[in-house]
């Protein structure tokens, strides 16, 4: 099954989150593409997701997830204690997403923004879709 994470490639917080996932994804399950890339735009279109989405997107097979649901689904596959964060999926998504929206709406102000998407290191480059 494909596990693809679409992320905001110019967001410092999002890039840090991708770096974190790369370190904790011991099974190397996840591949990545920025929302701004041609691959990212193509996948958004394929799954009927608006291009101006204010969330990262997790694609698992033929399903997609956004906001806190996506984040918690990623956590369940990470190494260490982070997988236990997925228990928060028991909280209804509208309540969880309140906190997600606070971070998403302030991420540039709080964490900054890059002029262009990050360039992955050669050792993880194969996990990034063009």
UniProtKB/TrEMBL annotation:
Pfam families: DCC1-like. It comes from the Bacteria. This is Thiol-disulfide oxidoreductase DCC family protein. InterPro entries: DCC1-like, DCC_oxidoreductase. One of its GO terms (molecular function) is protein-disulfide reductase activity.
């Amino acid at each position: 099954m494909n596990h693809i994470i679409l992320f905001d490639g110019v967001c410092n917080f999002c890039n840090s989150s991708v770096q974190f996932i790369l370190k904790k994804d011991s099974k190397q399950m996840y591949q990545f593409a920025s929302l701004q890339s041609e691959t990212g735009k193509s996948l958004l279109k394929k799954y009927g997701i608006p291009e101006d989405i204010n969330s990262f997107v997790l694609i698992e097979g033929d399903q997609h997830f956004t906001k806190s649901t996506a984040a918690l689904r990623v956590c369940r596959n990470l190494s260490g204690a982070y997988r236990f964060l997925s228990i928060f999926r028991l909280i209804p998504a509208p309540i969880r997403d309140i906190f997600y929206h606070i971070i998403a709406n302030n991420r540039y102000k709080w964490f900054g923004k890059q002029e262009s998407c990050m360039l992955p290191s050669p050792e993880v480059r194969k996990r990034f879709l063009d």
